[in-house]
């Protein structure tokens, strides 16, 4: 539980820092901050995920960066924790649309509640996709899009699908 609270606190801190900038004002540099967060409930379980991102604008429309991911699932059948890390690249079209690529290496710890079997494994993913952007304020945008894991194999993956919808916020563009 301490890991979950620490991760959520870190994610909120990154979002807050990037929103107010240094000294309470927006900074005018090439660094970007943002990510995705979510909470899900249903089918007798709970799911939490946080995906912070830090990037650097190589040019006005091209961004390179690193993304992390923490996902925790708990229900009456299983409990799992996934931590992912890797690089990403975004290309922006007139700040109204974007295309994106992101590689993540996931480290997965899974516990089956029926037989108390613990499993640890890794999975590599390569997400490609894009979406729409909506300005929220000075250098802040909401991103709505989707990505697909081109390495997805339904017979080997721990993920239920290769498709991932996204809604997130990025500061510093």
Structure summarized in a few sentences:
The chain is mainly β and 173 residues long.
In words, what does this structure look like?
- This protein is mainly beta and about 170 residues long.
- It has one domain (about 1-170): Porin, CATH 2.40.160.20.
- The protein has one helix spanning about 1-20; strands spanning about 30-40, 45-55, 60-75, 80-95, 95-110, 115-135, 140-150, 165-170.
- Strands 1-2-3-4-5-6-7-8 form an 8-stranded antiparallel beta barrel.
- The two termini are about 35 Å apart.
- Residues about 1-25 have low confidence and may be disordered.
Number of domains: 1
Give the second-level CATH assignment, the architecture: Beta Barrel
Distance between the termini: 34 Å
CATH class: Mainly Beta
Measured by DSSP, the beta-strand proportion falls in over 45%
**Mean pLDDT across all residues, rounded?**
82
Low-confidence stretches: 1-27
Number of helices: 1
Q: Globular, elongated, flat, extended or rod-shaped: what is the shape?
A: elongated
What does the main sheet amount to? Answer: 8 strands, antiparallel, barrel
List the defining traits of the structure above:
1 helix, Porin, mainly beta, 8-stranded antiparallel beta barrel, 64% strand, elongated, 173 residues, disordered N terminus
